[in-house]
Fold this sequence. Notes:
By secondary structure, this protein is mainly alpha-helical. The protein has six helices and three strands, in the order H-H-E-H-H-E-E-H-H.
Amino acid sequence: MHENIGFQLSRLPRLWRAVIDRRLAPLGLTQTRWVTLYHLWRLGDGQPQCDLARAIGVEAPSLVRTLDQLSEQGLVERRPCDQDRRTKRVFLTAKASPLLARIDDVVRQARNDMLEGLSETEVTTLAEQLSRIEDNGLALQAREAEEG
């Protein structure tokens, strides 16, 4: 049983996103676009591009392409940082608000559907256990980086 946990943990994010992708397809959103919009919305306006890329888990050049596309759609705008002109900050436009409300509804419903049959206590326990596994992985990564 324990041998399969890693495989299950790697499959679940793909499955989770596939469910959301299918539900957002009628809005014409690709996964990279809705994930970027959703993260920016959750993190708050004015995020530096590099911080947004790190939060999403993508390389900065990949994010730039996505931001170009979202900018062309009129959903985001990039502005220079007041403190460092080399840094670009990303802002949502007014046009993005109704789309984000729809994305949030879809994500919330998908989460409810994916967690169906689990009690609130089980969901809380699962979240705590996943956090512990993530913390262990981060600590392991840091130790291995120090070792060489």
